[in-house]
Amino acid sequence: NRTSLIVDPPDGRIPPLTPEGRKRRAKEARGFLGIDAAGPEDLSNQVRCITYPVPNVLAGYNSFFHILQTPQYVVIFQELIHDARIIPMDGRPHLPENIRQWHGDPRGRWDGDTLVVESTNFSPKSNFRGSAENLHLVERFTRIDAETIVYEITIDDPTTFARAWTIRIPLRSSPDPIFE
Fold first, then answer.
1. Separation between Cα atoms, residue 169 and residue 179, nearest integer Å
2. Is 91:76 a contact under the CB 8 Å cutoff?
3. What angle do CA 26, 10, 129 make, to 5 degrees?
4. Which of 46-50, 117-121, 168-172, 173-177 has the highest average model confidence (pLDDT)?
5. 172, 147 in Cβ contact below 8 A?
6. Is 21 helix (H, G, I), strand (E, B) or coil?
7. From CA 139, how far away is CA 7, in angstroms rounded?
8. Least confident piece of the model among 40-49, 82-91, 139-148
9. Residues 6+ apart with CB under 8 A from 70
């Protein structure tokens, strides 16, 4: 029952974009709308059905997640574009900085009852609200009852945003299957 998903900063607003962030955000918007597209490479990843950005904080259409846990990995299936994030839980280090991936390089660990996923090494072609290769995500999944997980995401990219910011979303259990 919040008026904003953003819990930090306390005003509930996304921090201002840096000049570099404004340029990338404008390019992202043009690619989503297909403005001045000379070819498919000028369109956004979503329009081309390659992937949606991580974190996916869309609500509504196809916004389901399926979380699967094994002793070595956590896998988060995203209904949109049928993406699967495979998160190692064995304490291995992140990949070398020169290896970049659409959804970054996630590493998971437990902090008490909270699953913490830290992602770095995003591809320059990734795009979360103008952020790309300098994005650093810390996601926290905390079960608060049998039907609800609180999903908290801290977004940090000093080349895109004036400061780090945090979103909190309740994920509610659903008996419905993932279709896409």
1. 22
2. no
3. 20
4. 117-121
5. yes
6. helix
7. 14
8. 40-49
9. none
What one-character DSSP code corresponds to residue 161? Answer: B
Looking at residue 32, what DSSP letter applies?
Answer: H
Instruction: Please list, in sequence order, all residues whose beta carbon lies within 8 angstroms of the beta carbon of residue 61, skipping any fewer than 6 positions away.
Output: none
pLDDT band at 98 (very low <50, low <70, confident <90, very high): very high
CB 170 within 8 A of CB 151: yes
Among 109, 169, 172, 114, which residue's Cα sits nearest to residue 145?
Answer: 172
> Which residue carries 């953003």 as its tokens?
6
Q: pTM for the whole thing?
A: 0.89
Q: What is the residue type of 159? A: T
Residue 147 corresponds to which tokens in the numbers above? Answer: 């039907």
**Cα–Cα nearest to 140, from 164, 105, 109:** 109
Encoded tokens for 59: 């609500």
CA distances from 120 to 40, 108, 157 (A): 27, 12, 10
